[in-house]
Amino acid sequence: MTNEEFERHVEFSLQQQARFDADMEELKAGLAATRKIVDRTAETVSSLTAVTFEGFKVLSDAQRVTEEQLQKLTARMDRHLSDNHGLEN
Hints:
Blueprint: H1 3-82
């Protein structure tokens, strides 16, 4: 290998290393940005999950109250009809 070939090889190797280093820095920056996005997404999902579970609790409580009121109404209607206020002969 001549001196000129060696110098070209060294120059090529240095350029490749510099390109590799630049690519690695770009990947690190991309990874950091991706981590931020994932963290924000996880926080959003967690928040939405909490809101959803609270909404289910409110709906469940409302459903329980509705069922209790419906049972009371049904019992009153049953009493009303059993007292022959349904006017059936």
